[in-house]
Amino acid sequence: MSIAISPSSIATAERIPYTIADEAHNLLQTAFERFMRLIESLDPQDWSKPTTCTEWDVRAMVAHQAGGYASGSSYKEMIRQYSTIPKAGQLPEDAINILQLSERADKTPAELIAELRLVGAKTIHNWAYGFRAIKWLAIPHPVGGFISLGYLMWITHSRDTWMHRLDICRATGRAFEQTCEHDGRINQLVVLDVAKKISKKLVHFGLND
Fold this sequence. Notes:
about 65% helix; mainly alpha; 8 helices; single chain
């Protein structure tokens, strides 16, 4: 099935406003607190349930989030994780994810929750307002092209937490808490990204008139 997307609808989507530091902080904070409420409510048997990320069960997914939030706790930890060298044919984030999970392989659910609570607030503040010296840096990605660290901090991290909260809700049969202000805005920013990518392709093929 094909879906026709008009240039005018793409132009409308491209007018979706980008986020700023204060909003990024709010999105991160809400995503984090909803994620924490969910995992703190899980039953012991929920942690071993498989997720749609087929190599991860719920515990592994939470370990990934713990590692991700730990990465924003300081320059030193961020550089340490981001310096992980991918194997041949491996995406950079896959190498980082493997590192995060391997370092937390022996942690209990309670320990993972405690780690998230320990670093969460500091990391959210750092991602929204800190790391100013490097936010402008763009890193190469074999699929996404060049991605700025500012984009990762303001957009990707809240989206990642939102996405994995949905994964865990589906795995455990829990209700997915949603509001227009938070979940709607997360999705708006996805639409903005998609519109920008489609627009570039239309320009490339001369189809944007």
